[in-house]
Every structure is written in structure tokens, then in C-alpha cells.
Amino acid sequence: MSQHFLLSSAAKTLNLRQVLRMSEDQAFETFKAIRWADNEGKPFCAECGGATVYEFKARRIFKCKACQAQFSVTSGTIFASRKMAVRDLLAAIAIFVNGAKGHSALQLSRDLDCQYKTAFVLTHKLREAMAAADKGAKVSGEVEIDGMYTGGYVKPANYRKDRIDRRLAENQTGKRRVVLVARERNGKTLTFVAKSEAEGVRGLHDRIALGSTVYADEASHWDAFHARYETKRINHSEAYSHDGACTNQAESFFSRLRRAELGIHHKIAGPYLAAYAAKMDWREDNRRISNGEQYSMVARAALMHPVSAKWKGYWQRSEKNGGAARTDWLND
Ligand SMILES: [Zn+2]
After folding, report:
1. What is the whole-number distance in angstroms between the Cα of residue 97 and the centre of ligand 1?
2. What number is the average pLDDT over the span 288-310?
3. Distance CA 257, CA 253 (A)
4. Which residues surround ligand 1, an ion (CB under 5 A)?
């Protein structure tokens, strides 16, 4: 293989049906091609970078001549200490990529006939790898900003006399968060989570390159943008678009995120909100490239991403901390 795998036609057309027809050996070769794409698919040592590597075919293990380290095709990646067969991991990526509005762990566990816990951690590892691709990134040019509040819902009491004013701070759960988006018109989308739009102002500043033109709605906390960027406002009580000023693309992202919340994950607030949002912005930005290329990008991102401090051994740690009582994952 002399061509970079990700540029090959095999990478552009990879799909679930092909993966499911692969033998474990073929899946293993595909994994190698993706992981070591920059080295023509040839493994090198994960410890010292040594290029002379022995392969123990039967066990699908490699050993470095220089430092004697043994490693597998997933060592040092986000799939380290995996329990799934390589082919199932490839299938999981394909299924995950195919769900245009996202894919729930419950559904994935049924698709792959694996434990719910395995699917839950696996989908979060994929989201982590996808989000990492945007770390430190900035948007520029014409940028729309907006926020979407989610979570912390307080159910109104049945009888009117029992109802409380849910707008008052003391009657709120403190769990409400806002997803902030900075979206280039016809370009890249960046998201993050804050407690309020006003608190998100600085984070938006960090993600928008100087010299950009920012489009925002009439909310007063966005006034802070005028000193830093050319800023155009649209008052939504008067119009959704006026003289080129609008935040329609930011809002179309949120409507997609909202639909994913309602239709797929049911509840995306709480500790994983940022991860779901990042996954959706990845989807949004890559929606026009082929499924096969999306597939290869996610697989590549996962295999280039180091072991996850957060998700490796998640259930073992969780159980030690009495984790069976955790319910934050039940809705995914
Ligand atoms: Zn080595």
C-alpha cells in the first residue's frame, strides 16, 4: 500500500455492510491501515517510535526490536484495553457515523449485541476523539453566535395553588446550562457549555479570531462584542433577518441539537452536554462529505487519540464509588 489510506477509494466508500463481511483478520488489516496511515499502514513502536517491529500473527501482537515493548493495534489509543473484537469496533464506528442525528448507546448495544455499559463508554470515547479535533480551534470571517438553554427542568405542580415561580433562582435546580455556538457562515462550527450566555462571552472571544464580523441577537450581554469585533445585531422581536444581520445558521444548528435531544438521547443535559454538542457540531461541519470519509475520519481520530483518562475503566471506577446508583447515563 503506497497511497495514504485516508485518501484511497477504500476509505471513501467504507460502510457497515463491508465491515460486517470482513473476517477479523481483514478488520485487523483495516485498523492497521487507518492507525498507521502516515507510515503506509506499517506499525511502529508506540513506546519509542522504533520502526523495526515483529508481528506475532496468531495473537495479532507486535514487538519492538529496539525496546522490546509489546503492543497491539489499539495500544496507546482511545480503544486501549478493549474487550470488543476489532471488527465490532469498526462496525460500531460505522453505525455511529450513519446516525445523522446521533446514535444512542442503548441502540448501539442492541445493534452489536454487546452490554449497554460497553456501548455507553464506546460512544463517549468516539465523541471525545471527535471533540479533540476542535481543541484550540477558532472560527473567523462572518461568525454567528447564539446560546441554547437546556436541562434543570422543574416540573410544574399539578394544582395551580401549589405551583412556584420557576423563574426565581431559589426555585431552580442549578442544573440549567447553555450551549454556546460560534458558527462561520457556511463554515466551521464550535460549541462549548457555560452556566449562562453572559458567562459564555469570554469563551466565545477565545474562539473567534480578531478581524471577524460577529452576528448576534439583541440580548444585552452580547454588547461586549462591539469593542472587540465588528458586530451586527438583529432584534428578533422585530425581524429574523435584516440587512444581512441574522443568526439563522446558529439557530439551525440548535434546532438540530434539539431534535437529537428529543429524538435520540432524550436528555442531553448534565455532565455530558459538551460532548453531545461537540459531536453534533462535528456532524454539522462534515455533513457534505461521503459516509465513507466520515467513517475514516472518526476511526482515524479515535486511533490518533491517546488513552482516555475519563473513559478508560469508567465502570470499574464507578462501581468502586458506589456507581450503581448513578443515573446520569440512563437516558442515553
Ligand atoms: Zn520501542
Report:
1. 34
2. 82
3. 6
4. 45, 47-48, 50, 64, 66-67, 69
Q: How far is the CA of 67 from the centre of ligand 1 (A)?
A: 4
User: Model-level pTM?
Assistant: 0.73
Which long-range CB contacts under 8 A does 222-229 form with residues at least 24 apart?
222/145, 222/197, 225/145, 225/201
Q: How many residues does the chain have?
A: 332
pLDDT tens figures, 101-155: 567 788 888 888 888 888 888 888 888 888 887 788 899 999 999 998 887 666 6
Distance 87 CA to ligand 1 centre (A): 26
CB 181 within 8 A of CB 147: yes
Interatomic CA distance for residues 180 and 196, integer angstroms? 9
- Of 285, 283, 297, 276, the closest CA to residue 183 belongs to 285
Distance from chain centroid for Cα 239? 33
The string of pLDDT tens digits covering residues 52-108 is: 999 998 888 999 999 999 999 988 888 887 778 889 999 998 888 876 556 778 888
Q: How far apart are CA 236 and CA 210, in angstroms?
A: 26
All 3 cell numbers of residue 280? 453534533
The identity of residue 206, as a single letter, is D
